[in-house]
Write a structure and sequence with these properties.
This protein is mostly beta strands. The protein folds into 2 domains: about 60 residues, no CATH class; about 80 residues, Beta Barrel (OB fold (Dihydrolipoamide Acetyltransferase, E2P)). About 10% of the residues lie in helices and about 30% in strands. The strands form 3 sheets. Strands 4-11-9-6 form a 4-stranded antiparallel β-sheet, with no helix packed on it. The N and C termini lie far apart (about 45 Å).
Amino acid sequence: MNIKEIKELLKLIDESSLTEFKLETDDVKLTVRTKDYHERSKTTFIHAQPDPMMVAPATPAANVAPVAASAPSTEEPTVDYLEIRSPIVGTFYRASAPDKPQFVKVGDSVAKGDVVCIVEAMKLFNDIESEVSGKIVKVMVDDASPVEYDQVLFLVDPNG
């Protein structure tokens, strides 16, 4: 992939409603996150290592950066929260039906394999199971909102 192709790709991403785009080939690994992605993930407290293969954006509207890490507080110990991410694109639902209870709420404990929400994709309702164990500390998406592939849905305290 050459610079011209990358610039064209960035222009398409900028004109779309995407907040994150990932592309991996044999010789290129590209992650593009727009300013809207960072607006939604300001409360993410994950400490991440930057990807050395990230490409700088050609347009000011598209930002390429690792997940932001919070500054450690002198009063509280730093906690690394685990993320439950959407494995598919679709619509996020916290309950199986409007009159049913939510699968999980803030403060609930989850175990690996527990259903935490549903993502509807193409008229199919997909149970999303937790891949981590701990206590739900934050729900990152509003009920009945669209979600993207690999978008953070919940933050989980593994010590909870």
